[in-house]
Amino acid sequence: MYNRATSITCNSMNSKNLNPNVSVDCVVFGFDNERLNVLLIEQKPLNKSIKPQSALPGDLVMEDESLDQAANRVLRELTGLKGIYLCQFKAFGDPQRVRDVKDLAWLQTYREYPQARVITVAYYALVKMHDFSPEASSFADKVYWCDVHNVPPLAFDHNQIVIEGLKTLRREFEAHRIGFELLPKKFTLSQLQRLYEIITDKKFDKRNFRKKILRENILIPLPEKQQGVLHKPAQLYEFNLRELAELGAFNGDTVEIY
Amino acid sequence: MYNRATSITCNSMNSKNLNPNVSVDCVVFGFDNERLNVLLIEQKPLNKSIKPQSALPGDLVMEDESLDQAANRVLRELTGLKGIYLCQFKAFGDPQRVRDVKDLAWLQTYREYPQARVITVAYYALVKMHDFSPEASSFADKVYWCDVHNVPPLAFDHNQIVIEGLKTLRREFEAHRIGFELLPKKFTLSQLQRLYEIITDKKFDKRNFRKKILRENILIPLPEKQQGVLHKPAQLYEFNLRELAELGAFNGDTVEIY
DNA sequence: CCAAAAGTGTTCTTGTTACACCCATGA
DNA sequence: TCATGGGTGTAACAAGAACACTTTTGG
């Protein structure tokens, strides 16, 4: 049972005029040339005896910001990350999604209306892990990257959100050409193939992959080779940004907020 | 400025315990062998002098129902339609989306908290128009089908929602094989081609279309022809439901609610 | 016999799959 | 000289695009 004042009214308890019924959650995937990871935070437990729980970075939406703005703000506040293109993929609204006993202590500590029903709007993003060094904020004890194949039990319905986010990511990655910011400026075709294989979770034939990718005319061979490797050094390439832009490869069809 | 009681509290003014911050809107597309239409309702104006405004069927979510349930309930209550597979496609959360002066009168008449910020979760569906006879409810003066090329100015941000719904519909229609319930049981290849052309808003070559569709093995030719037409009568077909089911053609990958 | 829509085949190009061996380097 | 990953070509097949004339019916 709860009672609240929102909107134009500013509740004195609550410097941040939050909407108690709507949140955003961010499924940020990070690629590190080896594995696909997802960004998690560890909730600060109520008291030290309670085992801390992991969760997606997410929080209530403020009354005067859009959903896109909220997603960017929340990610920045909880993890320090900014300048990441977040793409909305689904709203989760099961009436019981914040009612599990495992989440009660956290809700009572951090939410003004712990009983409020919360619908969450989920966003995903894909970044180069080493470009971003997430840092824990006051709300979270830790922020860490976690292999998508090894996600622990998370708060609320966040495991389901991760799964649906992954599905969306893979669908989008195969359909459009997202994810070209994930490699070093100069890279080899094998690195690119590994990127494709890790994200789509499929294997490709080396010759066919190279044929296909070179045919698309989005790579520029450089007058350089790998150095210091203990095998035949590979040709280095960079992306043809002009071509990619024409194909609408960057950031879907919406506009960046931050 | 508003104050409210929700959730476990049942407000005596409000037999239906609605969440003031979250709504659902339904973009129901109807195909009538000629055109693609969208289902609209006409809002009951506050007083007779105000020009009535059209809108998508939509309303606030109840505290104890899921978003999918809400979408189905709202559509049924406002238009009488049920048994329609609704698919969530996007949440709209601009803080100003219910702040336009054009919508003030309606909000003040029908909403307990007219100032509340409302995030809406939009659903789309595609049905055979003549299978459904929408009927106006107490909340709406009229319910009617409207050619998607001629949508009038709508309440709130509903024009934008229709546009995004159409984009989603077309993308899904081309990707998967939805929409096979839209033709009569027995139909001609020309009818099927017209369906494709109207929904995707493209033209196809007759020979190539037939080759492609027959190759897929989803049609069964019937020992029957058209009758009473003033030209060469066409072969009739029916769908190979067994094949279609295997291809996962029906209703995406989620489960029907009602 | 006319109007109207049905029905039909070929060619060209492009993309997809499957598959196995030699090459350049540093240790 | 060896281990390691880099680099290459061909054949078979499937899918997509372009294109024009004959057929059957009712009026």
TrEMBL record, chains A, B:
PANTHER family (alphabetical): ADP-RIBOSE PYROPHOSPHATASE, SLR1690 PROTEIN
Upper lineage: Bacteria, Pseudomonadati, Bacteroidota, Flavobacteriia, Flavobacteriales
A Pfam entry, by short name: WHD_NrtR
Domain Nudix hydrolase: 21-158
Domain NrtR DNA-binding winged helix: 179-239
InterPro entries in alphabetical order: NUDIX_hydrolase-like_dom_sf (IPR015797), NUDIX_hydrolase_dom (IPR000086), WH-like_DNA-bd_sf (IPR036388), WH_DNA-bd_sf (IPR036390), WHD_NrtR (IPR054105)
Designated name of the protein: DNA mismatch repair protein MutT
